[in-house]
Amino acid sequence: MKCIDEIPASELKGKRVLVRNDFNLPLDAKGNVADVFRLKQGWKTIQYLSERGARVISISHIGREGDSIEPVAREMKKLGRVFFIPDIAGRVAQEAVATMKDGDIALLENVRRDAREKENEESFARELASLADIYVDDAFAAAHRTHASIAGVPKFLPSYAGFLMRDEVTNIDAARSPEHPSLAILGGAKFETKAPLIRLLLEKYDHLFITGALANDVFKARGLPVGRSLISKELPGEDILSNPHFLAPADVTVERPDGQVHVKKPEEVGAEDKIVDIGPATVAMLSTHIANAKFILWAGPTGMYENGYIHYTQGIAELIAKSDAKKVIGGGDTIAAIEATGVPQEKLGFLSTGGGAMLEYLLKGTLPGVEALQ
Predict the structure, then answer these.
(1) In what order do the strands lie in the sheet with 274-278?
(2) Do the annotations mark residue 176 as ligand-binding?
(3) Is 262 annotated as a binding residue?
(4) pLDDT tens digit sequence for 97-139
(5) Where, if anywhere, are coiled coils annotated (predicted)?
């Protein structure tokens, strides 16, 4: 997989470069971008190309198939000279690209507005490729999708990884072979989809701590009460529960139907309780493992942060921020939860833009978008 900086800068000037970004950014109630994390991470490649005289054509999906990506264009204009093209690969897009000058940056409309994108139809991939001389994939968070703009276009253009794609692969490769002692923290839900990854992490890491709704499955499998808590269709087996590398919460935060919140031991959870987070004894337990670790992987907040339960996620983040370990953090809502805690991101190591893509790469060591660049 070659990176875009392997092309001599002089050869980029005047070239039309199609950059597949993942600018699937959350919008607020007024239709404005609510979080710019992925935009800032992806901007580095766009800026690099623009500064070297390339004509940058950014393409991404956002939200549902029918949504417009124009709000992202408004946010991009705060970073540089960007104009929005309300078309994908039709006549309007072709004519707009033909008028671009060296250094210009254009954002095309939501690529998933064309149904051929998700079907990975060759005709659509060819139309996208016709817009450019070079293709750059910087959309790691979408690299687990076999879509036309990810897996199709590289068949028709010289193709390279952007800086974000390169850094994601490099850092997550390191997380697949961690330095010891190592600690992995895995949250989220749906044990049935996480089971293969859990087994892999138990092989590779000195300790794997299961949190979030996955911990509820652990309690249930051990015959402990879980009240009204979210439970997966499948529960962990004894091969996981009795693994010497496996760690589960020592205490939990529960919410009563009347909104009252209590910290309890797992065996004390009542029929009307809903487990919403870990507790202070669990943070204390993890503190030693975090302090001793030379490598830390963290994917998934400890509690239901979207409902305001971020106190213990913040506690974990603060401990990790003090650690000198190599750190890779991402997956699902982890970054959003950390942002809500206010812990400085620069102290948390590598922050991945990938949710499902990060977890799938950890498991398989490759993704369709990565293979397309090889």
Answers:
(1) 261-264, 252-255, 274-278
(2) no
(3) no
(4) 999 999 999 999 999 999 999 999 999 999 999 999 999 999 9
(5) none
Residue 145 annotated in ligand binding? yes
Beta-carbon contacts of 260 under 8 Å, excluding residues fewer than 6 positions away, are none
Q: What is the pTM of this model?
A: 0.95
Alpha carbons 77 and 105: distance in angstroms, whole number: 10
Give the per-residue pLDDT at 66. 85
Of 161, 208, 218, nearest to 184 by C-alpha is: 208
Q: Degrees (nearest 5) of the Cα angle 367, 218, 283? A: 90
- The annotation status of 61 as a binding-site residue, yes or no, is yes
**CA–CA gap between residue 185 and residue 287 (Å, rounded):** 12
Q: Is 22 annotated as a binding residue?
A: yes
Topology at the third CATH level for domain 4-167: Rossmann fold (3.40.50)
Is 24 annotated as ligand-binding? Answer: yes
- Return the H-helix or E-strand segment holding 63: none
64 is in an annotated binding site: yes
Listed by start position, the domains of the chain span 4-167, 177-361
The architecture (CATH level 2) of 177-361 comes to 3-Layer(aba) Sandwich (3.40)
Is 292 known as a binding-site position?
Answer: no
Q: Under 8 Å CB-to-CB from 221, ≥6 apart: which residues?
A: 235, 236, 237, 241
Q: Is 112 annotated as a binding residue?
A: yes
Upstream peptide bond of 181 is cis (omega within 30 degrees of 0): yes
194 marked as part of a ligand binding site? yes
pLDDT at 332: 65
Do the domains spanning 4-167 and 177-361 agree at the CATH topology level?
A: yes
